[in-house]
Write a structure and sequence with these properties.
The protein is an alpha/beta fold and 487 residues long. It is 34% helix and 25% strand. It is built from 17 helices and 20 strands. It has helices spanning 44-52, 54-57, 79-85, 102-112, 117-130, 146-160, 176-191, 227-232, 235-240, 304-311, 330-335, 353-359, 366-375, 391-405, 421-435, 448-454, 474-484; strands spanning 2-10, 21-28, 33-37, 62-69, 72-73, 86-89, 164-168, 195-199, 212-217, 220-226, 265-275, 278-289, 292-297, 318-323, 326-328, 337-340, 409-413, 440-444, 457-462, 465-471. Strand 9 and strand 10 form a beta hairpin. Helix 5 packs across helix 6 (146-160) and helix 12 runs parallel beside helix 14 (391-405). The longest helix is centred in the middle third of the chain and has 16 residues, at 176-191. The relative contact order is 0.12.
């Protein structure tokens, strides 16, 4: 169904560091589920753009070779024609929205292909039911969490019913329950004979769906691995390849140099945050040790990002934060905070990676900046424009900015959404090192592997309230694993 022959592409330069691909030969059969895997920047996203026609129609560069879908060369077909056959879910769902409300977004693709009104309404209802998003209909796109936006993006593509589904890290902002829903949807699509191409770092939810894994490195296909062979690899083998685990149950807490938070406490009292008169976050009391690396978990829309916004003083709220007996007012917290946003495109401003790190650096020497770049494997991109990088590389630039800021409150909103195993390890090491000189590090995440690698305690939120708070000792490790492993 998909035939790729001697395919090469570079974004204006013959430079694989910008995510190009070289000498790709690949056949994907009808009804096959193929997973593109490999370290950040290896060319996975570029290959998805070549399959769905965004290259060369949207992204310009130097293209050689062919991508043939159902006998047609994608590069010679209009995107409107290709979209009838190939549905795409991007890594950043914001980039594919055209409406301000969710129901219109689900209808948009169907309207573009000229379906009758009755059929459009039927497909909206079917998509919402299948993906369990009825509660997200008739909502403002701007009020949704990152994970909720991802679910709407999936549903809008599902409504068009293409033969081929191309997904670029669809699980990146989803909670455990939503990932399981996504797995069930993909399973339904596969049983219906649909062809699925997925670029992913999180592999565990695909272990029973994938027919093949295409392992990419430096813009090339390093090898093809059957599902049966992949299941035989232990965690160490996968990690050596820069890949995440296949079986969550086998994970344990990796770090041996656990940070020991001090006896000093940051206290939060009577925290109350409301939107349009509705309470979205309410915390009567919370006491967190100085130096803690706190994983904030909960379903999409539970109040995690609101908690982070209140902590760093950018969201209005009642209640107060105190440290060493002194109240930390919102302005003071903002001055002492650095947030790595869920969508890092909002915080990349300069013309090069090195300039980006220097922009917010306080008392951070050039030597220290270069050291951080090297640890995050960004040194070879120091002169590259940040927006030319892959999603995972951008994420690492934003994290590097936090490391250089010397702020006392560090907040990371889904910091591993585009990170492979090796870069996740490097990021964890830097976060633990930075935590020694901070009041508090807060990590909003749906990533169990990252939590066990990096964090010292877990705060669980549900519907704007604390449902659990515990240290990551042996008992805590078992508890957080039970939360994330959805049966």
């Amino acid at each position: 169904m998909i035939y790729i022959d001697k395919l090469s592409f570079s974004y204006g330069e013959e430079d694989s560091c910008l995510g190009g691909v070289r000498d790709i030969n690949l056949n994907i059969a009808r009804g096959e589920c193929v997973v593109l895997c490999g370290q950040s920047g290896c060319g996975k996203t570029t290959l998805t753009r070549l399959i769905n026609g965004l290259i060369p129609h949207f992204y310009e560069g130097n293209l050689k070779g062919k991508v043939i879908v159902d006998g047609e060369d994608v590069s010679n077909q209009a995107l409107s024609h290709t979209a009838r056959k190939i549905g795409s879910v991007f890594q950043n769902p914001r980039s594919q929205f055209f409406n301000v409300d969710t129901t219109s977004e689900l209808a948009f693709g169907c309207e573009n292909i000229g379906l009758p009104v009755d059929e459009i309404f039927r497909r909206i209802e079917e998509s919402a039911s299948t993906l369990d998003i009825e509660d997200l209909l008739d909502r403002s796109i701007f009020e949704l969490s990152g994970g909720e936006k991802q679910r709407i993006a999936c549903a809008s593509v599902y409504a068009v019913k293409p033969d081929i589904f191309v997904l670029d890290e669809p699980s990146s902002n989803l909670d455990a329950v939503s990932i399981e829903r996504l797995r069930k949807v993909l399973d339904s699509l596969k049983r219906a004979g649909k062809t699925i191409v997925i670029s992913e770092h999180r592999l565990y939810y695909l272990s029973e769906l994938a027919d093949r894994y295409i392992y990419m490195k430096d813009g090339c296909i390093e090898c093809e691995i059957s599902s049966e062979t992949m299941k035989k690899f232990d965690n160490q083998t996968l990690n050596d390849m820069g890949l995440r685990c296949l079986i969550l149950e086998k994970l344990d807490k990796y770090q041996t140099d656990s940070i020991k938070p001090s006896d000093d406490k940051i206290n939060i009292k009577n925290l109350d945050c409301r939107y349009d008169g509705k309470t979205v976050l309410q915390i009567p009391f919370l006491s967190v040790a100085k130096g803690e690396i706190l994983a904030v978990i909960g379903h999409n829309g539970a109040g995690k990002s609101t908690f982070a916004g209140c902590l760093c003083g950018i969201i209005k709220h009642k209640g107060y934060f105190s440290f060493e007996g002194k109240i930390l007012k919102a302005k003071k917290r903002t001055e002492n905070s650095y947030m790595v946003m869920q969508d890092v495109n909002h915080q990349l401003f300069t013309e090069s990676v090195s300039e980006e790190l220097s922009l917010g650096a306080l008392d951070c020497s050039e030597e220290k900046i270069n050291e951080i770049l090297e640890k995050l494997k960004l040194d070879i991109y120091s002169d590259t424009h940040p927006l030319a990088l892959s999603g995972g590389q951008k994420q690492r630039v934003a994290i590097a900015g936090a490391m250089c800021s010397n702020k006392k409150l560090l907040i990371y909103d889904e910091p591993t959404s585009g990170l492979d195993y090796n870069n996740m390890k490097s990021t964890c090491s830097l976060i633990r090192e930075a935590a020694k000189d901070t009041y508090l590090s807060v990590i909003i995440t749906h990533d169990l592997e990252f939590i066990l690698e990096c964090c010292t305690a877990v705060l669980q939120l549900c519907d704007g309230k604390i449902t659990d708070y515990y240290p990551l000792n042996k008992k805590g490790v078992n508890k957080v694993k039970e939360y994330f492993i959805v049966k």
